[in-house]
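Support request, please re-run this one:
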Amino acid sequence: MMIYAGNLDYAVTSDELRALFEPFGTVTLAEVQVKSRTGQSRGFGMIEMQNDEEARAAIAALNGTNVRDRPLTVNESRPRRTVRDLYASGGWYGGGVG
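Re-run finished. Output below.
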């Protein structure tokens, strides 16, 4: 399962993110997302855990906890929406013609 961890302090590293989730099970990927031009953290990271039950336990335990004085937002990752998705689903305002 892919997990989203948001509201990260910009100084949090991928290794720290991995260490946060490892007590709950096997972490196959832990990566803080960074801006391609500057290398600065974007304030969120993606974590992949092999076992869905362990991943759900990590989400339940870590969502809302403070890390470096910031409450984390932790949930199951959803597919990224693109501009094409917005047009395909009825436009920017989500409405069909009624």
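Strands lie at 2-6, 27-34, 41-49, 66-67, 70-71, 73-76. Residues 52-62 form the longest helix (11 residues).
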